[in-house]
Amino acid sequence: MTSQTQTRPPIRFRGRSFLAVVLAPEAPIEDWLADLDALARRSPAFFAGRAVILDVTALAPSREALAGLVAALTERDIPIMGIEGAGSGSLGPGMPPPLNGGRPSGEVAMPGETPAAPTAEKATGAKSLMLESPVRSGQSVFFPEGDVTVMGSVASGAEILAGGSIHVYGALRGRAIAGAGGNPRARICCRKFEPELLAIDGLYRIADDIDPGLRGRAVQVWLDGDAMRTAALD
Length: 234
Known about the structure:
Elements: E1 21-23, H1 29-42, E2 52-55, H2 63-75, E3 82-84, E4 120-122, E5 128-131, E6 140-143, E7 147-150, E8 159-162, E9 166-172, E10 175-178, E11 188-193, E12 197-200, E13 203-206, E14 219-224, E15 227-232
């Protein structure tokens, strides 16, 4: 009887980077949750498909308080994938795992795995990113250092996140998130206005809240205090 030894391939470990939304609640929690509910009313699909991390560094909550906060977020369909800043005694069975060592990248992040980005050129000496090709559905482009300019279109299901302004010389059909690092002076401009979601400095607006009279036109978007303004450019 002849025995044959099967050679199995070795286990492979691959690195993969994900970007996540980090929620950093502040006291009083009731007021913070009320603000979160207001955001959800403006953008009900904002957390859909996004990885969310809870940073409780500013709270130093007890185990019971942390469990209550996680439960409150779960009730709002915001599942927490990990917790930063919790004491060793605050976590346990049934709680998300502890996380640490994350690299800050603004207040808003891309959902899911980052696909390969379109061909891009960074302007020398300037805080801007130019994309020479369209941004396809499923792609996310994140540039916290400054402005993003897209020479083509941004497809439905695609996402642009910029620390500064966003300029789209084609159709804007996906998500455009400007001023992600805290820049209320950022603007969003496009040649053909058909967005799924707009955001500037944390203020969001979804497609249902956008003036239908502006669709298909060249449009600019900016903040006026706590209000988001839109106006045709033609």
